[in-house]
């Protein structure tokens, strides 16, 4: 099976199958697997392949339950017919693809007996008018982990995962929030933020070309907000790429140094800075090896993490992440926090953030920081959010659900 096959729509389904295989068999992210899996596809087909794979992963547990209900012998987890059936059902039940189009573009992915099996199971489920539940069922290991951390919260989070998130924009000039809301037809959760429906064509929107805004989840915009205005003071954005927080800091008047070890991702940051008419010093280095020549008045450490808080937009994380990855990330975060703590000037502030729901990457990191806690106050936060009893901020995808939700973050702050 190749992407040159003449059946219309087949290349996108082939790519979707490759994406699913990359996530579930090799533990890759959808983003990592995307380029190789969709090579040769045009933009619309590439987007379709990603949508099919993402919805298959979002509802994977429930899709598997439907498949198992229609087979006499349970298909192995990594069986190709199971993967193809996942894609078929996701298209029918989530994307509204007509059954005849699903069959025509999915069965060629199989041959012989597996093709007949997939056709039979799919047809049987259609005859039964099979449906998905109102919200995705999370894998048992994820439920156990999240329930232990925040009892009673997991089901609420799962409900927030039923749909992909809206599109959030951060504005270069927060004073123009009302203007851009009106111009773009959006809503706002805080000054400097505009929210639009998902599926919006970003590059065609007013303000893109002149850099009046950039795409950034609302939760991801909160850490930089907690550093306040810069007034020309020195700020270090550690692990800065792809650059949303660097742009926020520069727009807020900080003299920013942006450090990341990925030269490729820093190219995107430089491009966004140029588009927005903002500036920052770019440093390509590993924060575990790099040493600054000066101390900073503010440091923002948005640390590498498991990213389980982004499960609305990246449903692969609930299937890829387990205890070993969490422990590995927590060890790295502790090392980064230890180094960053020594780079503050007197009276400086350090903000630590992870887009993770796991307490090992958030709450458990606080005790190791050799600085004075600088508690987050309710008055600093957008309406609907409150600090924890310890003065940190913990968000999850179910918060602000009535307004479209947000990513899950842990954010803490210290001072020298």
Keywords:
416 residues; alpha/beta; N-utilizing Substance Protein B Homolog, Chain A; Rossmann fold; 2 domains; eight-stranded mixed sheet; three-stranded antiparallel sheet; 11 strands; globular; disordered N terminus
Describe this structure in words.
This protein is an alpha/beta fold and 416 residues long. The chain has two domains: 10-127, N-utilizing Substance Protein B Homolog, Chain A; 219-415, 3-Layer(aba) Sandwich (Rossmann fold), CATH 3.40.50. Helix content is 39%, strand content 13%. The chain is built from 15 helices and eleven strands. Helix 5 (80-93) runs antiparallel to helix 6 (99-106). The protein is globular. Residues 1-5 have low confidence and may be disordered.
Please trace the helix and strand order, writing H or E for each element: HHHHHHHHHEHEEHEHEHEEHHEEEE
Distance between the termini: 61 Å
Instruction: Name the CATH architecture of the largest domain.
Output: 3-Layer(aba) Sandwich
What is the domain total for the residues? 2
- Beta strands, count: 11
Biggest sheet: strands, sense, closure?
Answer: 8 strands, mixed
């Amino acid at each position: 099976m190749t992407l040159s096959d003449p059946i219309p729509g087949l290349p996108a389904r082939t790519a979707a199958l490759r994406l699913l295989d990359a996530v579930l068999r090799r533990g890759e992210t959808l983003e990592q697997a995307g380029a190789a899996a969709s090579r040769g596809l045009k933009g619309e087909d590439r987007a379709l392949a990603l949508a099919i794979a993402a919805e298959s992963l979002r509802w994977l547990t429930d899709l598997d339950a439907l498949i198992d209900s229609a087979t006499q012998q349970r298909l192995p987890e990594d069986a190709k017919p199971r993967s193809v059936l996942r894609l078929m059902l996701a298209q029918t039940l989530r994307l509204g693809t007509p059954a005849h189009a699903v069959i025509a573009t999915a069965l060629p992915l199989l041959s012989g007996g597996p093709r007949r099996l997939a056709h039979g199971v799919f047809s049987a489920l259609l005859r039964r008018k099979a449906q998905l539940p109102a919200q995705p069922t999370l894998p048992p290991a994820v439920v156990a982990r999240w329930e232990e951390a925040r009892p009673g919260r997991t089901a609420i989070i799962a409900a927030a995962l039923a749909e992909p998130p809206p599109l959030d924009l951060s504005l270069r000039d927060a004073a123009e929030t009302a203007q851009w809301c009106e111009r773009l037809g959006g809503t706002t959760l805080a000054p400097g933020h505009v929210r639009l429906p998902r599926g919006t064509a970003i590059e065609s929107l007013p303000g893109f070309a002149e850099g009046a805004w950039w795409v950034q989840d609302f939760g991801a915009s909160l850490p930089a907000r907690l550093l306040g205005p810069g007034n020309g003071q020195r700020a270090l954005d550690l692990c800065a790429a792809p650059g949303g927080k660097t742009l926020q800091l520069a727009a807020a008047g900080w003299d920013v140094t942006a450090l990341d070890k990925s030269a490729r991702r820093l190219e995107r940051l430089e491009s966004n800075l140029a588009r927005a008419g903002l500036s920052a010093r770019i440093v390509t280095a590993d924060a575990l090896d790099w040493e600054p020549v000066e101390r900073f008045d503010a440091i923002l450490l948005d640390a590498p993490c498991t990213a389980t808080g982004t499960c609305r937009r990246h449903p692969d994380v609930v299937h890829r992440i387990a205890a070993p990855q969490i422990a590995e990330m927590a060890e790295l975060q502790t090392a980064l926090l230890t180094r960053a703590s020594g780079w503050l000037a007197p009276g400086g502030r350090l903000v630590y953030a992870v887009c993770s729901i796991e307490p090992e990457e958030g709450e458990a990191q606080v005790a190791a920081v050799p600085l004075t806690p600088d508690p987050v106050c309710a008055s600093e936060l957008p309406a609907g959010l409150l600090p924890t009893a310890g003065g940190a901020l913990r968000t999850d995808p179910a918060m602000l659900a009535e307004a479209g939700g947000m990513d899950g973050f842990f954010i803490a702050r210290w001072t020298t």
